[in-house]
Amino acid sequence: MTGDTVLGTVLDVLAAVLLLSGVALTVLAGIGMLRLPDVLTRMHAQTKPAVLGILLILAGVAAAERQSGLTGTLLIVAAFQVITAPVGAHMIGRAAHGTAATARQTMVRDDLAGRDARGQQQRDARSRQEPDAGSP
Length: 136
Description:
This protein is mainly alpha-helical and 136 residues long.
């Protein structure tokens, strides 16, 4: 065996392990989306294992194909996934926080208490009642 065939075999095995690991994490994320009770826990299942699963799949494709142009494209896709998934999850969580889709009885701590739509209405009502100190 030459060095190129050994390296090729090692990269093929590495690609297979990365792809299978990524698929397993992505499937677990999908199962979590179906099994978990409310939006906030589903959001957690959707972001963490799904993003890691996609990154492992992209790394597996890069190891299998071994083309620099494709690897650059996969790096860009990975960067966008890492940047956009947490932002999307944050927006979904903020939107769902004030609705009945969240199980408030299971929350240990609510950092957004008073900042949801009801809290905003209360703050608006208070600001209308209190005169502005800087106005004549």
